[in-house]
């Protein structure tokens, strides 16, 4: 996520204070850049007004790709390319193909979804996290407000963060 | 705000704060390896060395080095395979099924259990690969790849091939599930790292995780869908393993009860192995506040329930063998209970059916010593279960002139030791360099569970 250089950070100790603070601060017209938390806080994405993730749809699409691929592969190999007569039985018995079809569906859905998650969230082994406050992976919740994207003055933003229950309000500049 | 009923016991004791969780778990990763760890590692590397020696000769001279004979063509190899795969069922069960059921007690045990799952599946996969003899050609034999024989494809009607797909899918999906959960915790270690090497390593491992609310929302959705996918997957794996036997026509194997019976047995032995490992980890790493007696009791209840299901399955098998009126089926079971392998059968019965019933007593299921001993007894019993199913069904062949007994050789034992060495080496490395408890998940219940104690 490309963003500005000058931020005001509100540090919160408690997830319930944070949830109220997010609503409170947004009502005052402050645009929040992002909130960084050490653990998933339920309801935070709703408070921030984020849309529901579409990853389940991606998982479904990858899943049916796996199903199709598995069935096509088996029908092609045993039905068309090299039919094998095994005790006079059907060349392409569908019930026998179910286990492999199921496994391929799960495999494709899982890997496809996780791959999509990595791509959309910009997670990669050589990725460098833009760290606002080192404590945000330990025990503090950090609300970052981008000064360049807000029309309010830094003082007004700091006051809004303080009023909402932040234990500290800091500034952070990226060069 | 999360509310937990006051009737429930807290899942984290000792009034831990969020910061304490970070400190308590990261301490093991950041500190120097202890003497105990070095010793444990040396012992498992010793097992691994013996195993590598026997593996070399098994591959060099062929699997004739094992004690197999014309009648008993499958013995310790597939027994060990099924045993390890079974053990590898607990981790994904804990993280997937318990997640879907919103069982929060999974949170402090799922990391180690999933790690154990992955290592157990690796150990399991060793046996079919060794059994191939020339395992470097295994890809051609086991996967549908175009090959030098023309386009002669693998046989999709064969349960052994389904096994290849089931186990490789299970392994890779479990690995991904485990890794997704590790990413936020690696970020915590990265942000605390003081030296350059660990900063670089954990930075790469954490994939640039920043804990943004948006990413957490996606993470939660990925975890939920993966749990939904892994739940039928974990049940399918041992079902398909049981097809290896159930779709044959050997008396004693040809049974429709096998899939649920194998799955229950897998969960049973998997939980027992989780208990064995966690009781030691909790003691050595002083994690008593995270893995509480409450956790151990809940796991023991699962062991008791699945142990009872296994017991009912054994008795059903016996009943159906008699009720079916099929002479061969009746003989197979009579021979199991009274034949030359009766000692294995009754060891299995004692370890798997009788011993878990002790957990009806609250005193026993909350006792650490009793749990530890019984968890090992259960896994001994589960090894015998597979041995009984495999060897006693084969050793009295159709013609009495082909009847035989199985005697393991040094190479059978050595190849089994190899997997023990591999398993424990991997587990000890994990316990030293990875966070053994899912910090992010445990932190999310600190407010509702730990702080309310105060």
UniProtKB/TrEMBL annotation, chain A:
TM helices/strands, residue ranges: 57-77, 97-120
Ranges in a coiled coil: none
Keywords: Membrane, Transmembrane, Transmembrane helix
Listed name of the protein: DUF3341 domain-containing protein
UniProtKB/TrEMBL annotation, chain B:
Listed InterPro entries: NrfD-like
Superkingdom as given in the UniProt entry: Bacteria
UniProt KW Lipid biosynthesis keyword: no
Primary residence: membrane
Swiss-Prot/TrEMBL keywords: Cell membrane, Membrane, Transmembrane, Transmembrane helix
Membrane topology note: Multi-pass membrane protein
Record bears the keyword Transmembrane: yes
Subcellular location: Cell membrane
Transmembrane domains' residue ranges: 37-60, 80-101, 113-140, 160-182, 222-241, 261-280, 301-323, 343-361, 368-396, 416-437
Family per similarity comment: Belongs to the NrfD family.
PANTHER family cross-referenced by the UniProt entry: POLYSULPHIDE REDUCTASE NRFD, PTHR43044
Protein name: Polysulfide reductase NrfD
Species lineage: Bacteria, Pseudomonadati, Bacteroidota, Cytophagia, Cytophagales
């Amino acid at each position: 996520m490309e963003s500005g250089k000058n931020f005001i950070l509100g540090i919160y100790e408690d997830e319930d204070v944070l949830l109220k603070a997010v609503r409170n601060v947004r009502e005052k017209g402050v645009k929040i850049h992002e909130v960084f938390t050490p653990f998933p806080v339920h309801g935070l994405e709703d408070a921030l007004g984020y849309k529901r993730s579409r990853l389940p749809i991606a998982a479904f699409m990858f899943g049916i790709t796996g199903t199709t691929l598995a069935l096509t592969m088996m029908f092609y190999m045993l039905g068309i390319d090299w039919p094998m007569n095994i005790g006079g039985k059907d060349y392409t018995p569908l019930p026998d193909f179910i286990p492999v079809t199921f496994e391929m569906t799960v495999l494709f859905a899982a890997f496809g979804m996780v791959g999509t998650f990595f791509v959309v969230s910009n997670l990669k082994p050589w990725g460098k996290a833009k760290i606002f406050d080192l404590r945000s992976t330990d025990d503090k919740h950090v609300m970052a407000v981008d000064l360049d994207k807000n029309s309010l003055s830094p003082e007004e933003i700091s006051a809004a963060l303080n009023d909402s229950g932040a234990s500290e309000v800091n500034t952070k500049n990226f060069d | 705000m999360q509310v937990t009923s006051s009737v429930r016991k807290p899942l984290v004791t000792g009034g831990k704060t969020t910061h304490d969780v970070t400190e308590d778990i990261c301490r093991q990763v950041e500190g120097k390896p202890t003497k105990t760890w070095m010793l444990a590692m040396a012992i498992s590397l010793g097992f691994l060395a013996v195993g590598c020696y026997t593996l070399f000769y098994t591959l060099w001279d062929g699997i004739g080095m094992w004690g197999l004979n014309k009648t008993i063509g499958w013995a310790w190899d597939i027994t060990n395979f099924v045993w390890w795969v079974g053990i590898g069922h607990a981790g994904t069960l804990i993280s997937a099924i318990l997640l879907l059921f919103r069982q929060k007690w999974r949170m402090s045990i799922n990391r180690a259990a999933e790690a154990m799952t992955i290592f157990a599946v690796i150990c399991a996969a060793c046996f079919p690969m060794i059994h191939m003899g020339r395992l470097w050609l295994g890809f051609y034999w086991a996967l549908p790849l175009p090959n030098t024989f023309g386009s002669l494809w693998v046989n999709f009607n064969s349960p052994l091939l389904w096994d290849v797909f089931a186990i490789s899918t299970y392994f890779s999906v479990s690995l991904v599930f485990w890794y997704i959960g590790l990413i936020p915790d690696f970020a915590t270690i990265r942000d605390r790292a003081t030296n350059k090497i660990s900063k670089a390593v954990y930075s790469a491992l954490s994939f640039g995780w920043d804990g943004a609310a948006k990413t957490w929302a996606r993470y939660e959705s990925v975890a939920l869908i993966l749990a939904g996918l892994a739940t039928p997957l974990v049940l399918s794996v041992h079902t398909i393993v049981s097809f290896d036997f159930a779709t044959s026509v050997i008396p004693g194997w040809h049974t429709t009860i096998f899939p649920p019976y194998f799955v229950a047995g897998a969960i049973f032995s998997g939980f027992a192995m989780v208990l064995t490992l966690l009781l030691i980890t909790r003691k050595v790493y002083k994690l008593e506040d995270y893995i509480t007696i409450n956790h151990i009791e809940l796991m023991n209840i699962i062991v008791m329930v699945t142990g009872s299901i296994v017991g009912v399955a054994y008795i059903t098998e016996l009943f159906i063998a008699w009720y079916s009126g099929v002479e061969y089926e009746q003989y197979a079971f009579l021979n199991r209970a009274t034949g030359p392998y009766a000692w294995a059968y009754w060891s299995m019965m004692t370890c798997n059916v009788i011993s878990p019933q002790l957990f009806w007593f609250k005193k026993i299921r909350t006792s650490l010593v009793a749990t530890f001993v019984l968890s090992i007894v259960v896994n001994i019993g589960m090894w015998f279960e597979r041995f009984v199913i495999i060897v006693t069904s084969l050793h009295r062949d159709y013609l009495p002139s082909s009847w035989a007994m199985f005697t393991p050789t040094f190479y059978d034992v050595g190849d089994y030791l190899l997997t023990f060495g591999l398993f424990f080496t991997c587990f000890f490395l994990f316990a030293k360099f990875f966070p053994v408890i899912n910090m992010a998940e445990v932190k999310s219940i600190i407010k509702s569970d730990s702080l309310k104690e105060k």
